[in-house]
Specification:
By secondary structure, the protein is an all-alpha fold. It has one domain. Helix content is about 75%, strand content about 0%. Helix 5 packs antiparallel against helix 6. The chain starts with a helix and ends with a helix. It is found in: Cell membrane. One of its GO terms (biological process) is lipopolysaccharide biosynthetic process. Its main location: membrane. It is a multi-pass membrane protein.
Amino acid sequence: MSKYIPFILFTVFTNAAAQVMLKYGMMQLGSLSFVGVNPVFKLLSIVFSPFVFLGLCTFVISMASHLYVLSKVELSYAYPFLSLAYVAVAVFAYFVFHEDLNAYRVGGIALICVGTYFIAQGGSAVSEEAERAVEISQNAAHEVSK
């Protein structure tokens, strides 16, 4: 089970990185207004601004990683780990964007971390079953090749 934790954490951190890039990109663009402009062109200019585009591409990478994880572990095991992206984003936003990190937010972050820890301790039955199936098929293939 723990062999999938790096993939899960990669998903978490690419998700958080995407959020940070999107925020930075939107800060670069300034206040949005669709007054007097073609909305399609405005949306395209937003999507293709450098940091927004990079953030969207990072989301695609994060989702590809998440799909791989979902093929290996239970959804009820993998999905709660994504809440760690809230933690990473809050910490980064505090240090880089100077956003507020008050006692309520710190308390919420602590609860997220504790909850994720408990979920991780529960393991994932899908992964264990899949690993046993792979072992059985490899042993059978080895026996046939003899």
